[in-house]
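User: Structure tokens for this complex, please. No commentary.
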Amino acid sequence: MAAEGAENGADGCQSGCVSFVLRGLAAEDAESGVDGCQFDDMTDIYLGADRATEPEVAAVDAALGARGVDPVVRPETERLYTSGRSRRRERRHFLLPALHALQNAAGWISPGGINYVAEVLDVPPAEAFGVATFYDLFRTEPPDHEGDTFHVCVDAACQIAGYDDLAASVRASGGHVHLGPCLGQCERAPALFVQGSGGRRDYVPADDEPFELPQAGEESLRLLRRIGVADPSSLESYLAHGGYQALRRAGEMGAEAVLEAVAASGLSGRGGAAFPTGIKWRAVAAETGRPKHVVANCDESEPGTFKDRIVMEQDPFAVIETMAIAGLATGAANGWIYIRGEYPLATARLQDAIDAARAAGLLGPDAAGTGHDFDIAIWRGAGAYICGEETALFNSLEGFRGEPRNKPPFPTTHGLFGEPTAINNPETLLNVGDIILEGPDAYRSRGTERSPGTKLLCLSGKVGRPGLYEVPFGTSLGDLLDLAGGVAGNGELQAVLMGGAAGSFVGPDSLSLPLTLEDTRAAGTTLGSGVVMAFDTSDDMTAVVVRIAEFFRNESCGQCVPCRVGAVRQHETLVQMQRRGSLSPARRTLIDEMAEVMVDASICGLGHTAASAVRSALDLGLIASAPSR
Amino acid sequence: MTDTTITETAVTITIDGQPVEVAEGSTIHAACVEAGIDTPTLCWAENLTPVNVCRVCVVELEGSRALVPSCSRPAEEGMVVQTDTPRVRHSRRMVLEFLGSGVDLSQADDLHHWIKAYGADPDRYGTDGHPVERVEEPVKVQDELYIRDYSKCVLCYKCVEACGDDAQHTFAIAVAGRGFDARISTEFDVTLPDSACVYCGNCVGVCPTGALQFKTEYDLREVGEWRPDDQTVTRTVCSYCGVGCNLDLHVQDERIVKVTSPADHSVTSGHLCIKGRFGWQYVHGE
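Assistant:
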């Protein structure tokens, strides 16, 4: 439970700073030729009169010190030659950890706290404030309550599981409740996450329960084979269960052979977009002359998705081993894990795994004897769905607002810090380990021609045994639901949400649908991030769909007009529909017209998919056609 | 020194069926200008880095699933672009409608023509007694130089850019909040005199909607005396220092009511300092 007094519990990275996170002079020198004018490099940071409290200063210093950053404020005279854009470039990415430290120390991010961080990191306070106000886990007003904040999820799985009862019980015991978006614990809905204050750690009460994988120990498991079998906190146990064989094998094969194997396997990204991993890695490998990065996108926030959390919590070494393989294949020496802030156990287990691996020579110079240098740092998100979008993630990690960038250019050439970056979902990375060990042909023996391998699926809602499942691509939706104990609740299936809030609903007539990329696409739906959420006929689908619309309204970053306004107007139209119990033809047309501009003209995938589930529910007649009950 | 000539590589793209040649690195928008195709823009300005957030300049690019922002997408050899398809018109109309449904565009003069041209109807969202969320905030009048009226703000980011990396390097304002609640703000919304603001007014100079306004203009509008048609614009050189900034003095009833600088002026790129922008009172003996 809530361990008290631990050093800055909000932050997992207490030990072993990684040198590459200090972006040093090399990058600056390379840029200075471009920047030219030295006056361009000068920034006066104007600070107001507010000063940080001692606990705030101590928390920031500890968080930065753990990352090897000297928190000394430089005098103005020294700034004239070391300041400005170059110094900001060196330090800006420490803004997120520093803001976490402030929030954890004081329960909010105060003007004095912002000023201190601004001074130490050379970030203008207006920009630091703009970043702080971007995230759900940061408050910029004094808290109106004592103690920790209890975040209760209100998204679909928790909605039909009765989150209001949970919220009421927390309130009854004196806890301050914050109703918010999906916490990635849909298999154990309703979900609760406790954000510590006054230096107390963040924690998830459900993490105290023993973990059970429904398919634990089954022969057919590939990606999940160690879960429930090996001890996630022990490197020895990981090694005893085949750990680090894949990295050693990759070292023997060499980068080129690894790239070929990954391409030959037909592996595609498991974060939702299904981009071919081999092509992505090849593109990064082809870049030369600049630092390169491997980023594990662990910001899993799609409502209904919890697969990466379980993998990170239960098999953390596999994530960092396969990241090292990605580094070897692409020639990247810097590994970054960007993990959502609501995953304290996964963060701690990954950090422990990194520390143990580094101590054993499996990370760092000549990692695992491969001849390739590779190390990993963890950065925590702070509550923003959009930061799972890869370019928004880069901006967030770099200390800017998590606003997606326009593409092209793509991350393979202009990723983290504008440098070549291979960014992958943890499930994608885990697949690489298997591909290396058994070879692409054996890998392709599972799944279908166009969707080779297995898929992790997050079963939640009205199923007998919610949880994480692994099946070969091509398994039918009906068989998958049977595997998970069949339809629960009243036993009558009303609909299944595929792919999460950004996905779409299918009806009971889709049970024969083979779960492959190609079949789901042909059927007008998606596997997305692996969400399979079942609803029985007692569930109020109108309420579910209105909440999905509200989710996008709340999570739009606000940068581009189609999404910023479209998500609001879409939600308003559905709320109106909910009140009236019907949707006029003109309003239905309006929903389609709004969807069209969001799909066509939004900057990123959030806007592109914000109307997807809504329209599928209307098409299926799940809402607005008749009183649902 | 040897005489070196840098030859510019040209690329040819097809816009609405016409081949257009532009220098490599030019944007699709620049090519549209070259071809004489009028394109609506809002967040784009010639003296700022494109941020492509408003999406009103989108065009259809062959081979691209979504529409692309012409203001920032570089023209590449062989691109085939359509600027007037039903998809393009639909997106532009919807963007204008969305903006008009959420903020006050009454002083966004450059948009009025486009709202008409694309048949945008911002009022259709609030029908049937169905209230829609709008940005409604009291006008911030915190000094005698300029006012901020964020109920007119379309979040084009221009003021942030002008205050920051694109001109002034003061960083007094940034985007704060998220989604529809995102606003341009100082840290903790402190007043401008308490912020890093140096009153260069370059944010005012680039604002396309009247959200940022000279106090003189605001006061005249408040009493119904702002008459652009009766104003003259006189170009002169700032008298304060030796830099040589061009000033355009906007004069109504023989009084200066605001000062701008031409965006294509080699010295200013449209940007000024507090003296050139706001320091004209001595002309009137005040």
